[in-house]
Amino acid sequence: MYAHYPFVTKCENVPVEFPLQFQPGQPGLEYLMHPRPVSEQPGRTASGKLQNKAALITGGDSGIGRAIAYLFAREGADIAAVYLNEHADAAETQERIRQLGRRCLTIAGDIGNEEFCRQAVRLTLSEFGKIDILINNAAILFYQPDITQVSADQLERTFRTNIFSCFYFVKAAVPHLRPGSVIINTSSIASDEGYEGFAVYSASKGAINSLSRSLAITLIKRGIRVNAVAPGRTWTPLIAATFPPEMYRFLGTFAPPVPIRRAAQPFEIAPLYLYLASDDSSFVIGQTIHVNGGEYLGL
């Protein structure tokens, strides 16, 4: 089912209900999803806020990362999209960014490995000559309602992907970031609210909030601003690769915890990253900005 989305001018219909689907591997493939996530806001006018900037985005092949990449490209940035092994999604993202008139470098590998993160930074610098914006966005998510059944591998993989990678990329990139550069980390509403069955994921996202605040204090001395974005329920490949059937009630039109009564689309999350990446947020550091359809309101 689709419904007219009245909250953004000139926005076309977006899906509000999602049929059950499951993909066997993390982090999921966007081209297999139905309906497809909406990555761009039709009719949006660019204003050149990131003209000639270079952005490195982990998870930039699909989901929220793809939406950020498209929006940043519209605003004048070149993109390095880091991803695991979703080559078809990455190729689609690269082609669209080229259509938007910007360069796009795709880099495949495991961000839980520090040497790969260093390599991704080196490749980005080699391609663009600089990094102005670092976005640590990629994540992995395991659903396990029984905490006694969480395996050591799930625990380690979650933290390596979700939080270790943030350390690795910041460590590798900071020596090359100039005053005015920006780091944005992707947290989650789960970091504050917590969800049954997602204790490990919630813990990793809570760590991102703390890391972002601490880095903000440290790196502002170099002229580098650090913040985080905490999305609520958003229709991305991670959902199709993770959620069991009983969890889909949290996505549909009548999901009780969300007053807007639907899941977000990636293009609705991306403008928060643009705000934090641009000079519009020049006085904002160490913040975690929530975008969750009013989930905290308890309506």
UniProtKB/TrEMBL annotation:
InterPro entries: NAD(P)-bd_dom_sf, Sc_DH/Rdtase_CS, SDR_fam. Belongs to the short-chain dehydrogenases/reductases (SDR) family. It comes from Paenibacillus arenilitoris. This is SDR family oxidoreductase. GO terms for biological process: bile acid metabolic process. It comes from the Bacteria. GO terms for molecular function: oxidoreductase activity, acting on CH-OH group of donors. Keywords: Oxidoreductase. Pfam families: adh_short_C2. Signal peptide: none annotated.
